[in-house]
Amino acid sequence: MRFQDLLAYKKSFPKEETYSLTDQIRRSSRSVPATIAEAYRKRIYPKHFYSKLTDSDGENSETQVWLEFSVSCKYISEAIYQEFISESLEIGKLVNYMILNPEKFGVKKE
């Protein structure tokens, strides 16, 4: 199940958004690599590694939400939306690969 399928998510989707989406997208998308960097530097502590990577995954999902708002409000085209969502989905797969394969990134088993 995707978070977009949740009833609570659908009901909270605003009908109009007139400003600040660019800033929200910028902040959440920049947080993705920043928290990946933190995770990598904390890889000697497996729980911190997982925590930071799940934070990164969450920021990536937040970016997807802001992109959905942007296309819904017609601030970006469907083509741009599809391009960015495709990239975001790929990033999500890579982050989840790191979560599922921590030993490949220098994390020692506890």
Automatic annotation (TrEMBL):
Protein name: Four helix bundle protein
Organism of derivation: Flavobacterium bomense
Alphabetical list of SUPFAM superfamilies matching this protein: IVS-encoded protein-like
Pfam families hit by this protein: 23S_rRNA_IVP
